[in-house]
Design goal:
This protein is mainly α and 136 residues long. It contains 7 helices and no strands. Helix 2 runs antiparallel to helix 7 and helix 5 packs across helix 7.
């Protein structure tokens, strides 16, 4: 398939839904599930987090999730099934994102907890995104 055909066959609704799913997973992951552990792993305080621009942080996070969903859609293709999309998302998360985070965290001397929290989010989010993209 050539690039023009790949672009024309994108299901934009599934890309948007996949992006929003990653955004919501992040809210749960870094909120009630692992929020406190994430703050501890990166030495954040409540005061530190209050200093960030919520609009900028959340807006750019959603935009980056949209780009990730688009990229995954281009990678798996319009003919993907839910099973293939799920596996492709999982493999992208664990095989690319988590491995590169691991390399960065080794050099940055980050904790194993920090790695597991962030890499875990990436794997879960990309797996979910792949499932959504493949199903539609």
């Amino acid at each position: 398939m050539d690039l023009a055909t790949a672009f024309s066959s994108i299901n934009w609704l599934s890309v948007i839904v996949a992006a929003v799913s990653a955004f919501f997973i992040g809210g749960i992951w870094y909120g009630p599930l692992f929020g406190r552990a994430w703050m501890k792993a990166f030495n954040f305080t409540e005061e530190d987090l209050k200093q960030r621009s919520i609009g900028k942080t959340f807006g750019l996070s959603l935009l980056l999730s949209l780009f990730a969903a688009f990229n995954l859609e281009m990678f798996i293709g319009s003919e993907a099934t839910m099973g293939f999309g799920t596996m492709a998302g999982f493999l992208a998360g664990i095989g690319w994102v988590a491995t590169f985070l691991g390399i960065l965290y080794l050099f940055e001397m980050k904790s194993l907890a920090a790695f597991l929290i962030n890499a875990g989010y990436c794997v879960v989010a990309l797996t979910t995104m792949g499932a959504i993209l493949g199903a539609w």
